[in-house]
Amino acid sequence: MRRSDLGEFEEVVLLAVAALTPKAYSVAIAEDLEKATGNTITTGAVHAALQRLEDKGLVNSYMGEATAERGGRRKRLFSVTPAGSRVLHQVRTIRENLWSRILPHALPKVDLAR
Amino acid sequence: MKKASNLDQPPTPPKWGDKLIEWFCDPHLQEEVIGDLHERFHLRTKNRGIDKAKNLYIREVISYIRLSTITQKAAGYSSPLFLHPDMIRNYLTIAYRNLIRNKGYSLINIGGFAVGMAVAMLIGLWVWDETSYNKYHRNYHRIAQVLQNQTFDGEVRTWWSQAMQLAPELRSNYGDNFTYVITASWTNDRLLSVGDKVLTKSGNFMEPQISHMLTLHMLEGTREGLKEPNSILLSESVAKAFFGDASPLGQLMKIDHRMDVKVTGVYEDLPANSDFANLGFIAPFDLLVRSDDLEQKVGWGNSWFQTLVQIADNADMDKVSAIIKNAKKKKVTAEEGARFKPELFLHPMSRWHLYSDFENGKNAGGRIEYVWLFGIVGMFVLLLACINFMNLSTARSEKRAKEVGIRKTIGSLRSQLISQFMSESLLVALVAFTLAVVLVWLLLPAFNEVADKKIAIAWTAPSFWMAGIGFTCFTGFLAGSYPALYLSAFNPVKVLKGTFQMGRLATLPRKVLVVVQFTVSVTLIVGTVVVYKQIEFAKNRPVGYSRDGVFSISIKTDEVRKNFTAFRNNLLQTGTIVAISQSESPVTNTWITNSGFVWKGKDPNMQDEVVTMGITHDFGKTISWKIREGRDFSTAFATDSSGFILNEAAVKYMGLQQPIGEVVKAFGREYTIIGVVNDMVMQSIYEPVRPTVFYIDSFNRVGFINVKIHPQVSPKEALEKSEATFKKHFPATPFEYKFADEDFAAKYQAEERIGKLAAVFATLAIFISCLGLFGLASFTAEQRTKEIGIRKVLGASVLNVWGLLSREFVLLVCIAFLTAAPIAYYFLSGWLQNYTYRISLSWWIFALSGAGALLVTLLTVSFQAIKAALANPVKSLRNE
Predict the structure, then answer these.
(1) Is B59 in Cβ contact with A43 (below 8 Å)?
(2) What's the pLDDT at B182?
(3) Where in or outside the cell is it found (chain B) (predicted)?
(4) What is the pLDDT of residues B51-77, one digit of tens each?
């Protein structure tokens, strides 16, 4: 099914959910990704991705506690489902498989610090 | 301090973001979305400063505007649409159940409403008919009649008539302003004949372009048809009457047995709401000029005709009116009337029907007053019906308060409750509308009879239904608005706990409404009584002559004029009549005035004008007039052909001390006054008798034969004899007669019509008010069942209870009466000002109306009050 295909942004968000569990929610994920990529990531974009992931059955959600910063509103917390876990593992296997087959001089050298 | 407290609080983002999200975002997502936005803003403020945070906040909010957040998804709870089909069905069900459960109320509500709407509809149709006059003619906005203001002895009189020389003058010297200028005679009954077939039809002689001006719809022939010198255009119905289905084109006819004409066209009948409605035929004006030799006879001084104009397409009515102001004055000699300072002006077609009265040269309204009057009455009757509806709905609201409470608790929004009560009232209004349409359909023939109209309901016109339904919805909303807003404002906790009490203030609006209702009703009653009294008063005014058994025949052909004497002698021989004579005007309606009289002691500056009436001998005997001084005309004195008989008003007008024997110069010769008769009401019954001069007609101008039937002979027999004799002497003239008392009755027909309509509306207003009162009284009685039970147990008598329940309503009606009396006084004294001969508004009319209203109120309320008072207290107290 096409819908179970994972977009690039969705994959990153799914990974972030996994990394941040049990405190994975849209603001935390957006902040995290913003720090990691250096680009502005809006919560709206993350929220939409999370909704799509939930539709595909890759994440679960429940309402968490309220905080003062949120004006007393609750947050929606996400965790990865078994299906999500399988997809993540598959993706990882495919990638690692590919990485392992790259010959030592096939990739041009780049400065990773930049 | 303020700053510190600000630091404790997390910084909050601009409010508009929340508002925007709340507006578009799916409700079940709103909490997390707004929470996210706030937290992010808070974090950004901490890390990167408030300005940066605010800038990014805009981006954040916008990033949420996507399909996935807007789309409504079934989640934890749903919020159905404000007007969801299921809810509407529920409202209708509840409304239906409520109506069925309270059959009495429903009947009063719907019945009263239907009657109110039917009245409003009838009046609406009437007003529409009145205001749509002459719109059939496509050049409606450009057509006008030329009127003239002349000053007689300081008083300005407005004449609708003009000299036949005016139209050519306007055409040649003011032609740029007009498309058409037309001279026309007056629409009169004429004898039309084809071979042996003779019929009386009304028609007119007009200049040929009239067919273009009135945009006649030609069924046969063309509008150019009148250009032929001896032509005639027939209306469809007249053509049918003569020729049936055969084509009348080219057929030869005669008018009054003396003018030969050929039919050159047939036009569609003009509608009843046109001032030309009874134009059965049109013949060329030239034909009249030739056959009556008018060219020789009439000059600028004879304003005998009408001048109709259509102004040019680019012209302005007022400007043209100003341009032609002196057109006549420049042409006439002093002899012909320049001394009366004739000033011409245009009276537009759009104002002919509703603004036809002139006072002192200024327009003084006319029928428009009745249009306003009835329009207002219709609105009031409708208002009464609406008030009933509101009153009963609010009265019942206590019963439905629990329903409102439950609905609110379950989660109804106020808007939903409002829409519920609105839909209820709409339902009632629609049912009432259906009933009202049926009622109007049934009543219209009778209404047309009373109002002298030919109104039909345009069943197939979408505009009628749109107006009707739109009007119903409007009324439904209007009537429903009060209960809708009032009931929906109940506090559910109080209602359900049982502590909900409608305080004294809650009944105040209801009382105000009852007062308004009865104010209108009492005003209408007083109005009706006054109108009737005024008509009665004018009707019973001493007329000064006898109309009993007097009938008149209008003289239409020359044979009647020539052979009158033989006819007269023959008819007298039959013994069925007492007297027979001829006169210039009908007995009950003298219309000819003359001026230029000279008598001894006349003020040389006086611009005299008196009514003149040419008669033959025996006229006085025919109408049994009463000679005050001198004697009647007599065949014994040959000199009587130059004798005058004056009425008392004329004697006073001329200031004569010893009238008998005085010489008056008139019509270019000298007359001697031989007698004085008492004043006779021969014109308006509401005006003083005008100075009138009677003389033996020597100009052959007589137009009517007057006959007095022998008192011992039945009118039927006398008429049969008269007809037989008439036929024998005048074979070519149809025998058509009118009784003087019927003619006289026509004088107060307009007022009588108003009186009848006012009576009908007043009755309806009272009826509707009483329905409302009845409903309210029964409600009050029901509400106080327990109280009444306890009172009875403690020893109250039936009378006590009756007084208890009636007192409040009686008080309200008294207040209403006190409000209505000055209003009625103000309007009615204004109305009576129109009549010189009028009643005074005496106090007892008001007292009677007030007492009547009170009596009706008591009867209405008592029914319920006594029912409640007679009820067994055990029953009402048994269950709690």
Answers:
(1) no
(2) 92
(3) Cell membrane
(4) 888 888 888 888 888 877 776 554 444
Reported ipTM: the value is: 0.88
Q: Report the C-alpha gap between A21 and B259 in whole angstroms.
A: 115
Q: Is the separation of the CB atoms in B368 and B380 below 8 Å?
A: no
* Domain with A71 in it: 2-100
User: A106 in a domain, yes or no?
Assistant: no
In A, minimum Cα distance to B36 occurs at A27
d(CA B19, CA B30): 11
Q: What's residue B389's pLDDT?
A: 72
CB–CB of B702/B584 below 8 Å? yes
Give the CATH number of the domain where residue A93 resides. 1.10.10.10
Task: Say how many domains are in chain A.
Answer: 1
**Alpha helices (runs of H) in B597-748, residue ranges in sequence order:** 619-623, 648-654, 715-729, 740-745
Q: Which residues on chain B place their C-beta less than 8 Å from a C-beta of chain A?
A: 10, 12, 31-40, 42-43, 56, 59-66, 68-69
Judged by DSSP in three states, B455 sits in coil
- Do the Cβ atoms of B38 and A73 come within 8 Å? yes
- B459: nearest Cα among B481, B436, B445, B441: B441
Q: Assess whether pLDDT exceeds 60 at residue B668.
A: yes
CB B213 within 8 A of CB B198: no
Pairs of CB atoms within 8 A across A/B: 72
For residue A109, the distance in angstroms to the closest alpha carbon of chain B comes to 36
Cα A23 vs. chain centroid, distance in angstroms? 13
pTM confidence score: 0.69
Residues B838 and B828 sit within 8 Å (Cβ to Cβ)? no
Where are the alpha helices (H) located in A1-114, listed in sequence order? Answer: 8-20, 26-37, 43-56, 82-100
* Residue A112, min C-alpha distance to chain B (Å): 27
Residue B4 CB neighbours (<10 A)? 7
Output the average pLDDT for chain A: 86
Structure token pair of residue B414: 């106020």
CB atoms B63 and A45 under 8 Å: yes
- In tens, the pLDDT along B669-724 reads 889 999 999 999 888 888 888 899 999 887 777 889 999 999 888 888 889 989 99
How many Å lie between the alpha carbon of A37 and the closest alpha carbon of chain B?
A: 17
Q: Are the Cβ atoms of B10 and A51 closer than 8 angstroms?
A: no
Interface test with A, best of B36, B38, B64, B65 (most A CBs within 10 A): B36
Q: What is the pLDDT of residue B279?
A: 92
- H helices of B833-879, in order, are 843-870, 873-878
Residue range B189-212, pLDDT digits in tens: 888 989 888 888 999 999 999 999
| Residue A108 within a domain | no
User: Is residue A8 assigned to a domain?
Assistant: yes
Residue B79, min C-alpha distance to chain A (Å): 21
Characterize the bridge pairing of strands B143-152 and B306-311.
antiparallel
In sequence order, what are the beta bridge partners of B201? B190
**Residue partners of B861: CB distance under 8 A and separation at least 6:** B773, B774, B777, B805, B806, B809, B810
Cα of first residue to Cα of last residue in chain A, in angstroms, is 39
Hey, which residues 54-113 in chain A have their CB within 8 Å of chain B?
Answer: 63, 66-71, 73-76
Provide the 3-class DSSP secondary structure of residue B366: coil
Residue B394 has pLDDT above 70, yes or no: no
Would you state the pLDDT for residue B698?
78
